[in-house]
């Protein structure tokens, strides 16, 4: 009996444990099912008929770089150094970007012009409102993320170029994003940089520089006064007709700049031909009748061309006379060379010709030549050929005269009769070289 009761208790406990676990599992499954249903409802995949959901990456903040070109040339072309704004957040608006540009570029003048540039090219596009800024970012949008944007701003150095005119360009927005754009688009900015005092000062300086560079000379009373005085002074001297309008304007500018003292000091027109194109008429052309008014410069140009042709003819005649003089000089040089060659040949023939003998067997020559012209003393020099004489000159370090001796066919017999004057006729002009060769001749003759 006792065993039966214990067995029944075990069965009851086992049944209770099984029932409790089952109920717990059912509760847990129900909770998990509810969570999964909630998640399915949240991330449910839309049917083909339903509109596509927006990419969730667009709502996530990201950073990108802004490359700003400091300088805008006419007509609306960005050109200048490029500044980089690193890791700009996608959340800031156009006003924040302008503030960052002012901090990065010292001489920027945003009120004079700020633009955005396409991916390829330097053409400026309008960047006045937040809508324009969104358009610029759409240009560089890649799978919902903007990696970089190119902008351009005007600087003070562009004041003389004139304010550029930018084109208006809107990015093509897909149809499924138009609704979002209508909901999230920001109203046009009323900033226009009027609240930036620093940019106001820069814009005033920009306008001031532009007005200074574009000022007409006619409005400058000092320049007009100087110009009138210059014309009066030239008219009194009777030389006013020599100059055209461009000459007088440039002359007045030089007087104003202090480079020319006044009407009595004429500028060097050759330095300013890129401005006046032609020089004034010379004084010898003052008697010619010249047109007035608009044809003044043209008449000056034609007369100047005629004067230049006359100078070219004179230069040609002068060149021909110089060529004739050079030709005559060359003829005289050739005659002189022929005379020298003839005299050299005569000297050589005279040296080789037989000479009268004295009673003691010596020829009629000076005491200096006597020691060289004694054939009985040594016949070694007389027997030397032209080649041997050349080798001897090389040995004596007189190689520069070898060619001249060979051209004249100077052998040992001829060399034994040459004196200092004869060596000089052969082209040996240095006294030291002649002395060396004469010493060699003496040694050979005396053995």
From TrEMBL:
Q: Which residues form the SAM domain?
A: 384-438
Judging by the UniProt lineage, the source's domain of life is: Eukaryota
InterPro entries per UniProt:
SAM, SAM/pointed_sf
UniProt keyword terms in alphabetical order: Coiled coil
Q: Which residues form a coiled coil?
A: 303-339
CDD domains with a match to the protein in the record: SAM_superfamily
Entries under SMART domains matching the protein: SAM
**Keyword Cell membrane on this protein?**
no
Protein's name in the database: SAM domain-containing protein
Q: Which organism is it from?
A: Desmophyllum pertusum
């Amino acid at each position: 009996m006792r065993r039966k009761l214990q067995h029944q208790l075990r069965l009851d406990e086992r049944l209770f444990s099984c029932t409790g676990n089952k109920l717990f599992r059912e509760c847990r499954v129900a909770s998990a099912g509810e969570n999964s249903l909630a998640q399915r409802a949240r991330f449910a995949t839309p049917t083909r008929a339903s509109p596509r959901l927006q990419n969730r990456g667009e709502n996530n903040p990201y950073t990108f770089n802004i490359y700003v070109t400091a300088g805008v040339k006419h007509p609306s072309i960005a050109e200048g150094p490029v500044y980089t704004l690193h890791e700009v957040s996608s959340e800031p608006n156009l006003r924040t970007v302008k503030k960052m540009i002012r901090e990065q570029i010292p001489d920027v003048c945003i009120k004079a012009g700020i633009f955005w540039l396409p991916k390829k090219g330097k053409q400026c596009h309008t960047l006045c409102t937040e809508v324009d800024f969104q358009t610029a970012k759409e240009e560089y949008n890649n799978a919902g993320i903007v990696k970089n944007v190119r902008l351009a701003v005007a600087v003070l150095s562009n004041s003389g170029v004139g304010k550029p005119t930018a084109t208006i360009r809107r990015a093509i927005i897909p149809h499924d994003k138009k609704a979002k754009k209508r909901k999230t688009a920001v109203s046009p900015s009323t900033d226009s940089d009027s609240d930036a005092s620093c940019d106001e000062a820069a814009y005033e300086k920009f306008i001031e520089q532009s007005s200074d560079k574009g000022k007409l000379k006619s409005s400058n009373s000092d320049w007009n006064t100087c110009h009138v005085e210059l014309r009066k002074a030239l008219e009194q001297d009777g030389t006013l007709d020599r100059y055209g309008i461009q000459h007088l304007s440039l002359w007045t500018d030089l007087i104003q700049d202090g480079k020319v003292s006044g009407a009595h000091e004429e500028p060097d027109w050759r330095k300013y031909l890129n401005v006046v194109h032609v020089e004034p008429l010379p004084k010898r052309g003052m008697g010619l009748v010249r047109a007035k008014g608009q044809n003044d410069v043209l008449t000056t140009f034609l007369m100047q061309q005629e004067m230049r042709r006359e100078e070219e003819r004179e230069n040609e005649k002068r060149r021909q006379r110089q060529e004739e003089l050079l030709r005559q000089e060359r003829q005289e040089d050739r005659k002189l060379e022929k005379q020298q060659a003839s005299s050299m040949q005569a000297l050589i023939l005279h040296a080789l010709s037989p000479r009268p003998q004295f009673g003691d067997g010596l020829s009629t020559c000076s005491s200096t030549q006597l020691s060289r012209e004694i054939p009985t003393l040594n016949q070694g020099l007389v027997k030397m050929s032209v080649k041997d004489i050349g080798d001897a000159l090389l040995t004596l370090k007189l190689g520069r005269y070898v060619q001249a001796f060979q051209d004249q066919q100077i052998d040992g017999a001829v060399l034994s009769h040459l004196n200092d004057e004869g060596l000089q006729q052969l082209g040996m002009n240095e006294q030291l070289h002649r002395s060396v060769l004469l010493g060699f001749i003496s040694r050979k003759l005396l053995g």
